[in-house]
Specification:
The structure is a homodimer. Chain A starts with 5 loop residues before the first strand and ends with a strand. Residues 153-161 of chain A have low confidence and may be disordered. Chain A contains ten helices and 16 strands. In chain A, the strands form two sheets. In chain A, strands 7, 8, 9, 10, 11, 12, 13, 14, 15 and 16 form a ten-stranded mixed beta sheet that branches. In chain A, helix 1 (15-26) packs across helix 9, helix 5 (107-119) packs antiparallel against helix 10 and helix 8 (163-177) crosses helix 10 (310-330). Chain A has two domains: 6-127 and 302-307, Rossmann fold (3-Layer(aba) Sandwich); 134-280 and 320-337, Dihydrodipicolinate Reductase, domain 2 (2-Layer Sandwich). Chain A is α/β, with parallel strands linked by helices. Chains A and B meet through helix 1, strand 7, strand 10, strand 11 and strand 12 of A and helix 1, strand 7, strand 8, strand 10 and strand 11 of B. Chains A, B: InterPro entries: Gfo/Idh/MocA-like_OxRdtase_N, NAD(P)-bd_dom_sf.
Chain lengths: 338, 338
Amino acid sequence: MTENSIKFGILGCAQIARKVSRAIHLSPNSTLYAIGSRSIEKANKFAADNGFPETVKIYGSYNEVLNDPDVDAVYMPLPTTLHVHWGVLAAEKKKHLLLEKPTALSVADLDLILEACRANGVQFMDGSMWLHHPRTAKMKDMLRDTQLFGQLNSPDLDSLGALGDVGWYCIGAILWATDYKLPKTVCTLPKLTCNQQGVILACGASFDWGEDGKAATFYCSFLSNVSMDLVLYGTNGSIHLEDFTIPYEESSASCDLSSGANFAELQVGWTVKPVKVQVASELPQEALMVQEFARLVENIKKNGKSPDGKWPEISRKTQLVLDAVGKSIELGCKPVDI
Amino acid sequence: MTENSIKFGILGCAQIARKVSRAIHLSPNSTLYAIGSRSIEKANKFAADNGFPETVKIYGSYNEVLNDPDVDAVYMPLPTTLHVHWGVLAAEKKKHLLLEKPTALSVADLDLILEACRANGVQFMDGSMWLHHPRTAKMKDMLRDTQLFGQLNSPDLDSLGALGDVGWYCIGAILWATDYKLPKTVCTLPKLTCNQQGVILACGASFDWGEDGKAATFYCSFLSNVSMDLVLYGTNGSIHLEDFTIPYEESSASCDLSSGANFAELQVGWTVKPVKVQVASELPQEALMVQEFARLVENIKKNGKSPDGKWPEISRKTQLVLDAVGKSIELGCKPVDI
């Protein structure tokens, strides 16, 4: 812990909090300062199991974390149904908020949280780690290079998970690829699989941007073996990767870039094969996420800057499209305009 | 030319005939015997440009090829609108028929051709070369290995081309992956791009097999850079390849197999990375296709066997699904039951 680092409190002992607490530890501008659970025993056990330093404060309630004046920011991996209550309360207690996804059950709920963050001048960011991997920035460079890639016209994505969970990533990646321009129309695919309780096990949707030519499709399923594919097609090239939300390895990640490919004479092969683009990462992407969040909090806390509006906007647009997919499912796979 | 080899006549001088004439030459049981074009000049030029041996007969009409009693089989790369006329005539002249895809404008049209082949005891096969690459059989082995792959539950495919052209491959690959079980429902994706003449430049569709859990989606476009992706997701594994219709190289082709993958502790990586499965090919896949076709023709011609019903069935099912996709487009992206 350095004197200047941002002090994080964690609310809840979710599995994902193990990964993020390590990320807070790895991020050079951040300190794990406190953890709170509904019971002090659970919090103690979680701290011991994960080798937390003795300096970490252990609280037997979420409120105690929020009332600790030394906590700068909270990481909140609570069940989605609790996000509005605890997210709004955290903002009112002037805690910067790193909120696990999916951020809320609907845009209306998310707006309550975002409005509380705005009103209290605290930074909001959702827990989409992959956005912070340097490979993601590298891919954006490739997408922007029209000679290499041309115009984007059909990002396509398939991934494991139910809509609210991995669907968040799918929609997030599609919006990322299209510079967060909302699609005009959202329509779910005919295959929708639910369990007996009505929980979505597998679903997909297709997006249409109308006149500008872009289209995107995603499919997410709890019934497939782990897969995290992202494929982007442009007029001049394409990018493929199979590990977009969690890279195979921490130290670097790669994607396949195909640009200017065509068929060889007689169509018996290709003129150009894809090249593997390898991008090193100094820190795991979740630590980069924490570092970026802590940097923004430092700017607010020490330099009097305003919270960065980019991150809440990304979350809100993702949620907005997620809501539209949900509505299309409700309507029996009918198209929904955004 | 060996004495026993099957003698092929080619109808028309299409670009693709250059590749297939080479394939006939490479296939050990086949001989390029004749080529016919609407003009003798065109046929002569095509033969010269492509280095045809002097022994190849050059005809200034399609009829002359069909009337040559030494021609065993015809390869027909004519425009799709001409397939019914010339396909039926070829069958009536007792010529075995290797027909370029798309086979017909509709199932009704294709049925006229298939019925003529049946009535005249001649072999029918469409020109889907990729089915003959040994990689394709290898992938089927992997798909059938439930330990490796589990149950197939969501083949997904994206490729370049308009519906009738590359859509044929997409639908064919989806049917291949599902052992030619027809989907229950077909629904086109909301993004449909046509040119001013109403020709489809980009479209896609999603298929649902109902209770058995399978789903598939394809997207094909003339607006993207060359891409030929096929991705198959099972409960235990997945297969990825990016060159499914035309392998990057002739001598071998590969696919990535991921089986039993899971996340590493803390979800900071994967327990298993995909492995590249390399499959050698003694001949280019188009030569393997010709060889298989000639083998069936030999069996009929010399051993008195009946034509193999597998190939016409594959073509017909592909056409049936293609028709349903076309109908869904006509209905404005409404689901169509098969």
